[in-house]
């Protein structure tokens, strides 16, 4: 299921979108059941996203998602292809000119389930021209980041974990996040407080969290998994923040939720402490780690880490009094790893959905 030596799998960073969308020639991977014009799993993700969104081929959703697909979001699961179609139409009605630029696709083949996995980082540009759940159109432009983790078999996505920086969107539109969150709850009461789903996910995350007493010794055979455990289990869960200086490069960059741009180990540490300031008992579980190498830069690895955080709102760092509510964060981080340290970090979760949980 790997690429031919002469035809490596498509590598997205630094490529022009026109080149990525041009005809790519013969197959580079074994893709049973996939449409003939997809040459590898990365080409599938980039090309079908472009067709559905930029070309407005909403009809293709039904041939690219299974009828019973499940989309996991921080507001709870969305089930069925009809819901995917509806949500796509709703988004385009609010942002008719929305475009999606593929920044990266980190992928793997899942032999156990005879399927592919992809973690697709996207930058979206859009203008708020339609009345929708955010209220009347503001006419303002916005640029936000999304990451979609997808499990795919025979041309169809059957499970997806979708995280979008909706707080950055709201702030760029000049709206008050708390007012938007309250308005969304009024229109869809209970959408973010499904007690069975939220309790189940909080319990899973709490049970999966594991405190590592020391920074794990790097495993040459699996640096990405070791690094993910060191960052989340040791630095965060064990509150061993000094380890960040060992795990992140001195000049690291972190593109954090809410449009935050952080530089250096101290600011990365500050972001973790800020989260704990709101949820002092927070625990993170590492749910999946996927990695690929940069074909043009030996020793450089691109890593996708999907993680979940659960905690109780007993702190003040979000700007409101503690509610003692149990919350869940669904997040994905993409790391550029050089010499076994994180040089650049793109982390996405839906902070607006977090505010709704607190309300």
Oligomer: single chain
Helix fraction, binned, reads 25-40%
Order of helices and strands: HHHEEHEEEEHHHHHEEHEEEEH
Query: Helix/strand-derived class?
Result: alpha+beta
What spatial form do the alpha-carbon principal axes imply?
globular
- Mean pLDDT comes to 91
Q: Report the strand count.
A: 12
Give me the Rg, rounded: 20 Å
Largest sheet properties: 6 strands, mixed
Describe the structure.
The protein has 359 residues and is an alpha+beta fold. The protein is built from eleven helices and twelve strands. The strands form two sheets. Strands 2-1-6-5-4-3 form a six-stranded mixed β-sheet. Strands 8-7-12-11-10-9 form a six-stranded mixed β-sheet. The longest helix is centred in the middle third of the chain and has 15 residues, at 223-237. It starts with 16 loop residues before the first helix and ends with a helix. The model has no long low-confidence stretch (mean pLDDT 91).
């Amino acid at each position: 299921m790997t690429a031919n030596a002469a035809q490596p799998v498509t590598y997205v960073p630094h490529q022009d979108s026109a080149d990525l969308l041009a005809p790519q020639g013969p197959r580079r991977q074994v893709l049973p059941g996939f449409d003939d014009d997809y040459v590898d799993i990365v080409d599938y993700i980039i090309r079908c996203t472009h067709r559905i969104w930029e070309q407005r081929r909403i009809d293709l959703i039904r041939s690219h998602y299974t009828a019973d697909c499940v989309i996991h979001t921080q507001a709870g699961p969305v089930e069925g292809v009809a819901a995917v179609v509806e949500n796509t139409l709703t988004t385009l009605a609010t942002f008719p000119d929305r475009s999606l630029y593929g920044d990266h696709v980190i992928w793997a083949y899942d032999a156990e389930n005879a399927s592919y996995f992809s973690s697709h980082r996207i930058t979206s540009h859009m203008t708020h021209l339609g009345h929708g759940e955010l209220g009347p159109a503001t006419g303002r432009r916005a640029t936000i980041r999304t990451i979609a983790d997808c499990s795919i078999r025979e041309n169809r996505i059957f499970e997806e974990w979708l995280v979008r920086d909706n707080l950055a969107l709201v702030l760029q539109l000049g709206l008050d996040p708390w007012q938007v969150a309250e308005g969304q709850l009024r229109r869809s009461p209970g959408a973010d407080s499904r007690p069975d789903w939220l309790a189940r996910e909080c319990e899973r995350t709490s049970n999966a969290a594991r405190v590592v007493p020391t920074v794990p010794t790097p495993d040459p055979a699996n640096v990405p998994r070791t690094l993910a455990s060191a960052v989340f289990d040791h630095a965060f869960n064990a509150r061993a923040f000094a380890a960040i200086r060992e795990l992140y490069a001195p000049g690291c960059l972190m593109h954090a939720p809410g449009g935050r741009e952080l530089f250096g180990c101290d600011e990365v540490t500050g972001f973790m402490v800020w989260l704990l300031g709101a949820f002092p008992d927070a625990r993170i579980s590492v749910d999946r780690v996927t990695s690929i190498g940069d074909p043009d830069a030996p020793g450089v690895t691109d890593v996708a880490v999907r993680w979940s955080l659960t905690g109780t709102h007993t702190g003040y760092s979000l700007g409101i009094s503690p509610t003692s509510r149990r919350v869940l964060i669904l997040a994905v981080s993409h790391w550029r790893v050089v010499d076994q340290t994180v040089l650049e970090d793109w982390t996405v979760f839906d902070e607006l959905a977090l505010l709704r949980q607190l309300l």
